[in-house]
Design brief:
The chain is mostly beta strands. The chain has no helices and 7 strands.
Length: 100
């Protein structure tokens, strides 16, 4: 059986990204929005699925608490888009915390 999974990563400014564990080194990761390094990361293990038979999450995924979003509604077409990446709260210190 092979391992399947991805990293959840937050930079110190609270920008959130996900990346394959095979394509990303946390030590070298830079935020695509601001260029900062990782302030927090978590590995989500999808090898045996994400949920058990009772619907309980088993893959280690951490739900992020959003702090600020930047929506903008187009005057011409009415479509809502975002002018900047969302900002999320850094989880409490513990597993994956790398801020120095």
């Amino acid at each position: 059986m092979s391992f399947e999974g991805y990293f959840q990563v937050l930079c110190k400014n609270g920008h959130y990204e996900t990346h394959s564990v095979y394509a990303t080194s946390i030590d070298l990761w830079k935020c695509g929005a601001c260029g900062e390094g990782a302030a927090w990361w978590n590995m989500v293990d999808l090898t045996n699925g994400s949920y058990d038979d009772d619907g309980t999450r088993i893959d280690g995924y951490v739900y992020m608490e959003g702090l600020d979003f930047f929506p903008c509604k187009c005057d011409k077409c009415g479509i809502i888009h975002y002018t900047s990446p969302a900002v999320y709260k850094l989880p409490e210190k513990g597993k994956g915390y790398v801020v120095k």
